[in-house]
Amino acid sequence: GSVLFRDSDRFAPTCSPLPEGSHYASTISDNDGVAGAEANIYQTFIATAGTNYTLTGYFAGGGNNTVKIALLDGDENAAVLNEATVHSPGSQYDWTFASTTGQPTGGLMTARWQVVPSGSGPHAAHADNLQLFVCQNPITVTDVSPSQGVNNGVLSITNLAGTGFSGSPQVVFKHALSGAMVNATDVVVASGSQITCNVDLTDRTSGYYDVIVVQAGCVGTLAGKFLVLGAGLMNGEFEFPAAPLVCGPPS
Fold first, then answer.
1. What are the residues facing 51 on neighbouring strands?
2. What is the DSSP letter of 247?
3. What is the model's pLDDT at position 233?
4. Three-state SS for 16?
């Protein structure tokens, strides 16, 4: 069982919805802690066989559930062409980017947003800026320079290398494990094989990030090749106590 409504306050996102609209979609599915229930939100549309379609969106939520987006080869009962996992059971996620692509074999296609509970609720999921594109000129992302930065300021990316760049693409840095996301700014297409941009790494979680370029319905991903480094120990007072330790049993 599921309900689709707007602006849920259960596992509410920590930031405002994206600026393109004033509301976001939400769904809550619950099954009294028993695995197996699904909330499937879908839309079927007329498609052209053999054409590359790309489904993109931004997602937030949390809880013991698996969240996926998929493109199906026909109506809502058809086989899955391709899907992407947005969230696995665990921590909350806040407007992380996800995409998937597929080629239908017939004249129908279905975009599906799915929430599958795997434990006790609430199982809240939010989606915003869901869009479907036709990818006519595929792009690739092959390298990024510099390939690492410190989480204490803005880093200038001098060469995001790839193929097929043009127009005004969007560049996203996405933590490979948590899905935490930061949008690049000042994106400039220097050539068909080079993009320059700035990315604000201030207080970002350390670790490896995927670099994602979205352009005219096409998505190129460089998986886990950009490293964010901590400027120092996460908890200096714990590592280097400023006062003598008081030992003994807890009070």
1. none
2. -
3. 65
4. coil
Residue 1 has pLDDT above 70, yes or no: no
**Contact at 8 Å (CB) between 207 and 177?**
yes
**CA pair distance 46, 154, nearest whole angstrom:** 44
Average pLDDT, integer, range 55-78: 91
Contacts of 169 (CB under 8 A, 6+ apart): 139, 187, 189, 195, 213, 214, 215, 216
- Buried/exposed code over 190-200 (b: 16+ C-beta within 10 A; e: otherwise): eeebbbbbebb
Structural tokens at position 249: 């049993």
pLDDT value, residue 230: 87
Report whether pLDDT(105) > 70.
yes
- Residues 192-207 have a mean pLDDT of 94
C-alpha to C-alpha distance for 176 and 186, rounded to whole angstroms? 23
Whether residue 78 is predicted with pLDDT greater than 70 in this model: the reply is yes
- Count Cβ atoms below 10 Å from residue 210 Cβ, excluding itself: 19
C-beta of residue 155 within 8 angstroms of C-beta of residue 211: no
Rounded Cα distance, 147 and 210, in Å: 11
Q: Using CA atoms, how far apart are residues 58 and 130, in angstroms rounded to an integer?
A: 7
Dmax of the chain from CA atoms?
A: 73
Sort 188 into a burial class: Cβ within 10 Å, 0-12 / 13-18 / 19+.
exposed
In the DSSP assignment, the letter for residue 181 is E
Task: Assess contact for 65 and 87: CB atoms under 8 A.
Answer: yes
Query: To the nearest whole percent, how much of the chain has pLDDT over 90?
Result: 50
Chain-centroid distance, C-alpha 96: 3
In terms of DSSP bridges, do strands 65-72 and 53-63 run parallel, antiparallel, or are they unpaired? unpaired
